[in-house]
Amino acid sequence: xxEHYAVExxxxxxxxxxxxxxxxxxxxxLNILGDYEFVNAAxxxxxxxxxxxxxxxxxxAEAKSIxxxxxxxxxxxxxxxxxxxxxxxxxxxxxxxxxxxxxxxKPQTLFLDERDRKLVAGKRIALVxxxxxxxxxxxxxxxxxxxxGAQIAVEAAIFTEGDRAxxxxxxxxxxxxxxxxx
Length: 182
Fold this sequence. Notes:
This protein is an alpha/beta fold. It contains four helices and eleven strands; from the N terminus they run βββαβαβββαβαβββ. α1 packs across α2.
């Protein structure tokens, strides 16, 4: 039987399954894909915290945080950019950076396509993710935005996870623990 960790955002409760990501270490898995009720509740709360930031563009990484970026885009009337995890021919002169995902445990490369590169250059952007855990994806997004000449105005997520001391500058709706066996 799978253990769960309960979270609540704006009165919407979810039971997140606990998953072992390496021996003796478990995390609660948030999967917002298809969960319009939770995404809409979370995006409304995050939008309220981001609306005074004078943002131009939202930026997220493929794939689980795309619904959040889309909902925030609608709430804030801003465009959003998705950093892809594979290069496609239509992407032109794409920028890239490498990241290590806690859920996959494998290196991944993020790509910013040429069209979106023009959209973020010189703009105030918000980096958006569903959960910020190790900060590797966030660091990959930062590197690409710096290469593109964007100004990172804020970093936001539904939840931070792990060592809270690392995440004092993140706009988040809550914090998820990491379970480590002794």
